[in-house]
Amino acid sequence: MANLRVHNDRLEVHLTPAEKSLALRSADVIVQRDDIRSATITDDPWIWIRGIRRRGTEVPLVIAVGVWKTHNGGDFVLVKGKRQAVVLELSGGEFGRLVLSTNRAAELIDKLKVGAPNDDDPPGVASGPDTAQRGSAPDAETFAQEETSGD
Predict the structure, then answer these.
(1) Taking the model in full, what pTM does it have?
(2) CA dihedral sign, ordered 53, 93, 25, 16
(3) Average pLDDT of 41-53?
Protein backbone atom coordinates (compact mmCIF):
# COMPACT_ATOMS: atom_id res chain seq x y z
CA MET A 1 0.00 0.00 0.00
CA ALA A 2 1.49 3.33 -1.06
CA ASN A 3 1.94 5.95 1.62
CA LEU A 4 1.26 9.62 0.92
CA ARG A 5 3.21 12.01 3.10
CA VAL A 6 2.66 15.75 3.14
CA HIS A 7 5.58 17.91 4.29
CA ASN A 8 5.81 21.69 4.41
CA ASP A 9 7.68 21.77 1.10
CA ARG A 10 6.72 18.55 -0.70
CA LEU A 11 4.31 15.65 -1.22
CA GLU A 12 5.87 12.19 -1.22
CA VAL A 13 4.21 9.13 -2.75
CA HIS A 14 6.06 6.13 -1.32
CA LEU A 15 5.30 3.15 -3.54
CA THR A 16 5.34 -0.42 -2.31
CA PRO A 17 7.72 -2.86 -3.99
CA ALA A 18 4.78 -4.35 -5.93
CA GLU A 19 3.65 -0.92 -7.12
CA LYS A 20 7.21 -0.08 -8.19
CA SER A 21 7.32 -3.31 -10.18
CA LEU A 22 3.96 -2.63 -11.83
CA ALA A 23 4.96 0.96 -12.61
CA LEU A 24 8.38 -0.14 -13.92
CA ARG A 25 9.85 2.52 -11.65
CA SER A 26 12.58 2.25 -9.04
CA ALA A 27 12.00 5.54 -7.19
CA ASP A 28 9.15 7.06 -5.23
CA VAL A 29 7.30 10.09 -6.60
CA ILE A 30 8.15 13.41 -4.95
CA VAL A 31 6.34 16.62 -5.88
CA GLN A 32 7.22 20.08 -4.58
CA ARG A 33 4.19 21.81 -3.04
CA ASP A 34 4.96 24.97 -5.02
CA ASP A 35 4.36 22.95 -8.20
CA ILE A 36 0.79 21.93 -7.22
CA ARG A 37 -1.64 24.20 -9.10
CA SER A 38 -4.91 22.51 -8.22
CA ALA A 39 -6.39 19.46 -6.56
CA THR A 40 -9.65 17.74 -7.46
CA ILE A 41 -11.50 14.86 -5.81
CA THR A 42 -13.20 12.47 -8.24
CA ASP A 43 -15.38 9.41 -7.78
CA ASP A 44 -14.37 8.07 -11.22
CA PRO A 45 -10.59 8.33 -11.63
CA TRP A 46 -10.61 6.37 -14.90
CA ILE A 47 -11.96 9.34 -16.86
CA TRP A 48 -8.97 11.43 -15.69
CA ILE A 49 -6.37 9.13 -17.25
CA ARG A 50 -5.18 10.76 -20.46
CA GLY A 51 -2.61 9.93 -23.09
CA ILE A 52 -0.92 6.64 -23.87
CA ARG A 53 0.67 4.32 -21.34
CA ARG A 54 4.40 4.71 -21.71
CA ARG A 55 5.68 2.75 -18.73
CA GLY A 56 3.59 0.73 -16.31
CA THR A 57 0.67 -1.65 -16.03
CA GLU A 58 -3.02 -1.32 -16.83
CA VAL A 59 -5.96 -3.66 -16.45
CA PRO A 60 -8.97 -1.46 -17.31
CA LEU A 61 -11.25 -0.71 -14.34
CA VAL A 62 -9.00 -2.84 -12.09
CA ILE A 63 -5.56 -1.20 -11.83
CA ALA A 64 -3.47 1.42 -13.59
CA VAL A 65 0.02 2.17 -12.29
CA GLY A 66 2.78 4.02 -14.10
CA VAL A 67 3.47 6.89 -16.49
CA TRP A 68 1.10 7.97 -19.26
CA LYS A 69 2.58 10.06 -22.09
CA THR A 70 0.71 13.25 -22.97
CA HIS A 71 1.34 16.27 -25.19
CA ASN A 72 2.57 18.16 -22.12
CA GLY A 73 5.00 15.46 -20.97
CA GLY A 74 3.65 12.76 -18.72
CA ASP A 75 1.20 11.92 -15.94
CA PHE A 76 1.79 9.55 -13.04
CA VAL A 77 -1.20 7.30 -12.37
CA LEU A 78 -1.93 5.06 -9.38
CA VAL A 79 -5.58 4.03 -9.73
CA LYS A 80 -7.11 0.95 -8.18
CA GLY A 81 -10.67 -0.19 -8.77
CA LYS A 82 -13.50 2.29 -8.50
CA ARG A 83 -12.18 4.17 -5.49
CA GLN A 84 -12.27 7.86 -4.98
CA ALA A 85 -9.14 9.60 -6.21
CA VAL A 86 -7.29 12.90 -6.05
CA VAL A 87 -6.15 14.57 -9.28
CA LEU A 88 -3.26 16.99 -8.76
CA GLU A 89 -2.45 19.38 -11.61
CA LEU A 90 1.23 20.31 -11.54
CA SER A 91 3.08 23.28 -13.03
CA GLY A 92 6.56 21.85 -13.13
CA GLY A 93 8.72 18.88 -12.36
CA GLU A 94 8.68 15.37 -13.71
CA PHE A 95 4.90 15.11 -14.28
CA GLY A 96 2.04 17.33 -15.43
CA ARG A 97 -0.58 15.51 -13.36
CA LEU A 98 -0.88 12.91 -10.60
CA VAL A 99 -3.97 10.70 -10.38
CA LEU A 100 -3.95 8.83 -7.06
CA SER A 101 -6.64 6.56 -5.64
CA THR A 102 -7.13 7.13 -1.93
CA ASN A 103 -9.66 6.43 0.79
CA ARG A 104 -8.78 9.74 2.45
CA ALA A 105 -9.04 12.23 -0.40
CA ALA A 106 -10.67 15.03 1.61
CA GLU A 107 -8.00 14.80 4.32
CA LEU A 108 -5.23 14.94 1.71
CA ILE A 109 -6.71 18.05 0.07
CA ASP A 110 -7.14 19.64 3.49
CA LYS A 111 -3.47 18.97 4.36
CA LEU A 112 -2.29 20.39 1.03
CA LYS A 113 -4.42 23.57 1.34
CA VAL A 114 -4.34 24.10 -2.42
CA GLY A 115 -6.01 27.37 -3.39
CA ALA A 116 -6.84 28.23 0.23
CA PRO A 117 -6.96 31.87 1.25
CA ASN A 118 -3.75 33.25 2.75
CA ASP A 119 -3.78 35.11 6.05
CA ASP A 120 -2.49 38.21 4.19
CA ASP A 121 -5.39 38.22 1.70
CA PRO A 122 -8.47 40.36 2.34
CA PRO A 123 -11.58 38.43 3.46
CA GLY A 124 -13.27 36.59 0.60
CA VAL A 125 -10.17 36.57 -1.62
CA ALA A 126 -8.54 33.20 -2.35
CA SER A 127 -4.97 32.70 -3.38
CA GLY A 128 -4.13 32.11 -7.00
CA PRO A 129 -4.06 28.59 -8.44
CA ASP A 130 -0.26 28.47 -8.19
CA THR A 131 -0.28 29.00 -4.43
CA ALA A 132 -0.34 26.33 -1.74
CA GLN A 133 -0.70 27.61 1.81
CA ARG A 134 1.87 26.30 4.26
CA GLY A 135 0.86 24.97 7.65
CA SER A 136 2.59 26.09 10.82
CA ALA A 137 3.85 22.60 11.63
CA PRO A 138 7.59 21.96 11.41
CA ASP A 139 9.04 20.22 8.35
CA ALA A 140 7.89 16.79 9.39
CA GLU A 141 5.56 14.10 8.24
CA THR A 142 1.99 15.36 8.73
CA PHE A 143 -0.03 12.86 6.72
CA ALA A 144 1.55 9.44 7.07
CA GLN A 145 0.33 5.96 6.27
CA GLU A 146 -2.13 6.96 3.55
CA GLU A 147 -3.47 3.77 2.02
CA THR A 148 -4.03 3.77 -1.71
CA SER A 149 -4.67 0.10 -2.23
CA GLY A 150 -7.60 -2.21 -1.53
CA ASP A 151 -8.89 -3.66 1.67
Answers:
(1) 0.76
(2) negative
(3) 96
